[in-house]
């Protein structure tokens, strides 16, 4: 049996990224993915801290020195922001899973509040931590 020729049908093309205009929702979606990736690095830092803690005072002193240094604190500050941003982005998606918040204004305000809230929570967490210390 000979194969039959299929008629050529023009397939729709997906628009290229250059056509899209960057919106708050798109930017926060990208940041949500990036913060999810960055959380792997932060989890490695927590694992290093726990292994050093279990290994004894000498190993822990090296890790405590690093996290107490300026670069260590900047990394921890960034990790706190990553954690807060990813959490708020996840809550935004959870709200969307209920079918709420898809109108243009609410989508925009939720995306903006994800960024503003993550910065504010990070500053509050660090202010409290430094005051308690």
Can you describe this structure?
By secondary structure, this protein is mostly helical. The protein has a single domain, classed as 3 helical TM bundles of succinate and fumarate reductases (Up-down Bundle). 76% of the residues lie in helices and 0% in strands. Helix 1 packs antiparallel against helix 2 (57-68), helix 1 (24-55) runs parallel beside helix 4 and helix 2 (57-68) packs across helix 3.
In short:
The protein has 133 residues and is mostly helical. It is built from 4 helices and no strands.
Order of helices and strands: HHHH
CATH class: Mainly Alpha
| Count of domains | 1
Approximately how much beta-strand content do the residues carry? under 5%
In the CATH hierarchy, what is the superfamily?
Fumarate reductase/succinate dehydrogenase, transmembrane subunit
Largest sheet: none
Mean pLDDT: 91
| Distance from first to last alpha carbon | 82 Å
Query: Looking at the structure, what is the overall shape?
Result: elongated
Secondary structure class reads: mainly alpha
Name the poorly predicted regions: none
CATH topology: 3 helical TM bundles of succinate and fumarate reductases
Number of helices: 4
Count of strand segments: 0
């Amino acid at each position: 049996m000979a194969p039959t020729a299929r008629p050529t049908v023009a397939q729709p093309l997906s628009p290229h990224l250059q056509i899209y205009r960057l919106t708050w929702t798109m930017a926060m979606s990208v940041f949500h993915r990036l913060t999810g990736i960055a959380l792997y690095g932060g989890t490695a830092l927590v694992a290093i801290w726990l292994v050093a803690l279990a290994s004894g005072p000498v190993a822990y002193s090296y890790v405590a020195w690093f996290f107490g240094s300026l670069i260590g604190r900047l990394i921890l500050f960034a990790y706190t922001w990553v954690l807060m941003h990813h959490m708020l982005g996840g809550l935004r998606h959870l709200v969307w899973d209920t079918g709420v918040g898809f109108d243009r204004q609410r989508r925009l305000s939720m995306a903006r509040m994800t960024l503003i809230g993550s910065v504010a929570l990070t500053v509050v967490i660090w202010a409290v931590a430094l005051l308690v210390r």
